[in-house]
Amino acid sequence: MTNTHKTLHNTTHKDSAHKHMRPPGRTPHNESRVRKSIRLYLHYVSVNIRCMMQYKTSFFLTALGQFLVSFTAFLGVFFMFQRFSRVEGFTYSEVLLCFSIMLMEFSLAEMFARGFDQFSGMVRSGEFDRVLVRPQSEIIQVLGSKFELTRFGRMLQAVVMFVYGIIRSGIAWNLSKVLTVIFMLIGGTAVFTALFLVYAALCFFTLESLEFMNIFTDGAREFGKYPVGVYGEKMLLFSTFFVPYALIQYYPLLYILDRRTHPVYMFLPLLACWFLIPALMFWKFGVRHYKSSGS
Amino acid sequence: MKKYLSFFRLRFAMGLQYRAAALAGVATQFAWGFMEIMIFRAFYRADPASFPMSFSATVSYLWLQQAFLALFAAWMMENEIFDSIVDGNIAYELCRPVDLYNMWFSRSIATRLSRAVLRCFPILIVAAFLPKPYGITPPASPGHFLLFLVTMILGLLMTVSLCELIYILAFFTISPAGLRLMFDSAADFFAGALIPLPFFPEKMRQVMELLPFASMQNVPLRIYGGSMTGYEMQKAVFLQVFWLAAITFTGKVLCLLAQRRVTVQGG
């Protein structure tokens, strides 16, 4: 099965490289690098989706499974709040709002950056050698190696919870709050993508994916359903200055819920994007130290 | 019987080789358990009166859950078995003079035990030395501890026999990914892996305790902390034995059916 995937992937790519990459009357030099990369990435995405649609039943079952997995996580929260009315001052609908935004951020990142999540396989099979010899950015190629559309099942669950949370929490929405949510989605996707990037870069040194890193990705999704402040002072410090979970979840949430009014809370999620910089540096460092593992 | 024992020995010895993986696992489980405890502490501080079991019993439950994760986690299935069904290597197994069901059973138990043996002690020892409300407390009584060990073995057998059902169903569905995801999330939820069963509303809990999933980790972990009465414990052990017999029987019958109509994939 994997073999057919690979060949399908490569041939379609090659064909279109002739068709799309050099449109008539335009040499590749005229096109900026960024635009070319985006075009290539979108092409990778479309190949991935078409690939996946060859196995429609499997696709829908997996999407349904993804939905159910996060649905049981929701049930966990639901039943805890049948017993308790609030936790550290947050009500049920406020926690749902927090949970759903975190879940959307995570699913978006997983959809786009799944290639990094599965990177250990690429290193071990020697596939990464082939990536390195192609005249394109290796990040784009790894990103494009997998586009996980099945995560839309999880996304759907998050959206349903989000709508419910909005209706129940009785927040007076205004432009700045809507913007805050959008910033949270951008910042959160960036933070989780950065974490996947670190996770992948570690494979250059260990060849295996490190189980411990799961606590920062899956663990953050799991425990991020409650506002970070719930976990105590020290955890809040850690997630403000080390891995900026609090910037994409706790502080902007306080702004949305009118617990904080200073506009700086609105922009904190965008600030969290800084986390991509060390992650990218670590990745570059890893690529430079990459020794092929053979195949 | 002898051949299944050697399958067991082989797998067990193999599992013990992965020490670096076990170390990473211990660290992960430790962080996970710590975060879980922090959530329950926040709920406890919000409303101690609504807590269905004592805080220290809850903490013990969570630490034991992390320490013995490999025994009870339904999602820790053997990928090799699924792969062999999907890629057709199962044909070799079918040629051998062994019973498929029993072989998978001994293999799974060996893998789970070897993982648990490597991981449980560091977690238990550190958890025992943690400051008062956050550490694991000694068992309620020597009798409770004995019953904890017995029900833990029953719980392990129960987990493996449920997983066997999924392996066998893979014969019928070919692509087991969706089925697995659904089973994993249902098992986690009903077994009390997500939140311990006592935290559910009363009526819901009563129904959930009757389901086979409750016979996995729920029984031993709750007996250890002494949060079950004598009658409840009797009922729980009886249910464990009943479900174990029923599920194993179902699995064996399904396995025979599957082998009769097996289609070997690939070549």
Would you write up a description of this structure?
The complex is a heterodimer of chains A (295) and B (267). Chain A is an all-alpha fold and 295 residues long. Chain A has one domain (60-288). Chain A is built from 15 helices and two strands. Chain A has helices at 2-21, 33-52, 56-83, 92-117, 119-125, 127-133, 138-144, 152-169, 175-206, 214-223, 233-241, 245-248, 250-256, 264-271, 276-288, and strands at residues 86-87, 90-91. Chain A has a two-stranded antiparallel sheet with strand order 1-2. In chain A, helix 3 runs antiparallel to helix 4 (92-117), helix 9 packs parallel to helix 14 (264-271) and helix 9 runs parallel beside helix 15 (276-288). The radius of gyration of chain A is 21 Å and the shape is globular. Mean pLDDT of chain A is 84; it is low at 1-27. By secondary structure, chain B is mostly helical. Chain B has one domain. In chain B, 74% of the residues lie in helices and 0% in strands. Chain B contains twelve helices and no strands. Chain B is globular and about 60 Å long. The A-B interface holds A 1, 55, 57-58, 60-62, 64-66, 68-69, 71-73, 75-76, 79-80, 82-88, 208, 210-212, 214-215, 219, 223, 226, 230-232, 235 and B 21, 24-25, 27-28, 31-32, 35, 38-39, 41-43, 45-47, 50, 52, 86, 175, 177-182, 184-186, 188-189, 194-195, 199-201, 204.
